[in-house]
Structure formats: C-alpha cells, structure tokens
Structure to design on (195 residues):
C-alpha cells in the first residue's frame, strides 16, 4: 500500500479483533482508494509481495469493487475493497493507526466499524458489535454512531439500523449498572469503631 501511495484501512473481522472482539478469523479485509487506471500497477506490486489475485476478471472487479488475493506462502486470504465516494472516503479520513507487532496499520475507527457491522447485520456481526461496545464502552463516540446511522437510514429508506445499535448500547448500560450494584453489595461493611 505504501509503495503505491494508497490510503487504506483494515476493517471486518481483524478490525473487530483489534477493537475488542474475541472471535478468530484468518481473513483480512481492507478498503483502499485505488484509481481504476492504476489497478494493474497495484496488482503487480501485490504480486511482488507474494499476494496473487484469486480472480483475474476485470468485470468481476468492476461489478463487485473487490480484488480478492491470497498470500502464496501463508495461504492468507485478503480482500481489497475499492473505496467509493462518500462514506468510505470519510472512513479513510477517520482511520486510526494501530501498532500491530511493530508496524503501524490504519484501522477503521471503532465507531465506523460498528456502523459497517450493523449494515452487514449477520449474527457474527452483531456479536462483534456487542464485543466492541463491551470493550470500548464509554470511550466510544455514541453520538457519531447515531448520526451516521440516522443519515444511512434516511439515504436508504430504512428505519431498522439505529434500533440495532440502541439495543446493544442499552444492554451494555444494563450490564454496567448490574456490575456496579454487584460490586457495591460484595464490599464488606466496615465495623463501627469501638469507643
């Protein structure tokens, strides 16, 4: 990515793991701002680093906006999603550099990850949302998540995105309140001092 001067970020399961999910996945998903006229140069650069294209079909790439690769030595699958205008551009700007074994890797922000997971909506995505909310808690910009989900609902003509977040956020609040009460009840009471 750096050789080609690209803006990019990790999203999907690996980002969920970075931000607090406990599930495991070998798949790596990244979004990159790659211009169509530079795709051949990018694919050649990837090949020089042992990433081979899984599908050599320009129509598939144009239709799906996904470049699937596999790393020759490790067998690791890598899907490179071509960033589109709008939301993905914003996600690129908001990506957070994270130290992964001594290498700074841009990762989708936890707030934007939650938005993408709500859009995907599969059971494993909901579990990732729950884990990230539980781990990140009060550090999350909940207003930002609500704002983006509201805009998406309006743009898509849906009303079922924001309720998913609110349900998980309320669950976290209930769990936090219950944990505080349990901690308070378990504290030993001080004996009154003798006079």
């Amino acid at each position: 990515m750096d050789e080609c001067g690209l803006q990019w970020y990790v999203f999907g399961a690996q980002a969920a793991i970075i931000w607090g999910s406990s599930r495991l996945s070998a798949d790596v998903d990244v979004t990159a701002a790659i211009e169509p006229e530079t795709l051949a140069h990018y694919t050649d650069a990837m090949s020089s680093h042992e990433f081979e294209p899984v599908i050599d079909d320009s129509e598939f790439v144009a239709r799906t906006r996904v470049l699937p690769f596999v790393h020759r030595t490790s067998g690791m699958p890598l899907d490179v999603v071509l960033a589109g205008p709008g939301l993905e551009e914003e996600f690129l700007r908001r990506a957070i550099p994270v130290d992964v074994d001594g290498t700074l890797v841009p990762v989708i922000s936890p707030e934007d990850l939650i938005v993408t997971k709500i859009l995907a909506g599969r059971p494993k995505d909901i579990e990732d949302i729950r884990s990230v909310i539980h781990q990140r808690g009060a550090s999350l910009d909940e207003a930002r998540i609500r704002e983006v989900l509201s805009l998406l609902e309006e743009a898509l003509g849906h009303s079922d995105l924001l309720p998913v977040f609110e349900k998980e956020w309320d669950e976290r609040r209930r769990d936090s309140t219950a944990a505080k009460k349990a901690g308070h009840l378990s504290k030993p009471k001080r004996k009154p001092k003798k006079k």
Observations:
- The radius of gyration is 21 Å.
- The chain has a mean pLDDT of 89.
- The longest strand covers residues 66-71.
- The longest helix spans residues 162-186.
